[in-house]
Amino acid sequence: MGRTLIAGLTVLVAGLAAAALWLGVARNEGRQDERDRQAAVRAAAVHAAALLTLDHRTVDQDVARLVATSTGQARDGYVKGRDAMRQAALRREVSQAGVLRAAGLVSMADGGRSAEVLVVGDALIRWGADGKRGGDPGGAGEPEERAYRWRMEVAKVGDRWLVSRAELVQ
After folding, report:
1. Where found in the cell (predicted)?
2. What is the pTM of this model?
């Protein structure tokens, strides 16, 4: 009877240890899921802040920030359009400063490796000393306020979250 009791207690302790381990793993997975959700939103917000900030005096660094915070289709677009963006910013002497208003997670997909995030920001755009706006010779020299709303797809690449698509929405 003593051996049966010891065997039963051993099985019980092993079962409790396995249950505790399983609960610990599940709790850690839940924490990692929450960290990923927060990191996805943060990545979209950082990318949006880079989109909201453009200055003809720092255009190369500004575009580099866009490239550094993106991947896939978005990154390819910034790399291909880098020279055109630079030339337009220099020619028009554009200075855009913005404020991020909000960013929120819409959904997670692909086993927590991709997400959709909505981002809202506002910017004030100033055009060069020539008083022209957007290359329009008759344009006003007054600053222009713009509101931006993006739907961004972000992807986990290694241990970093990067924007793979940024789409303006109404």
Report:
1. Membrane
2. 0.77
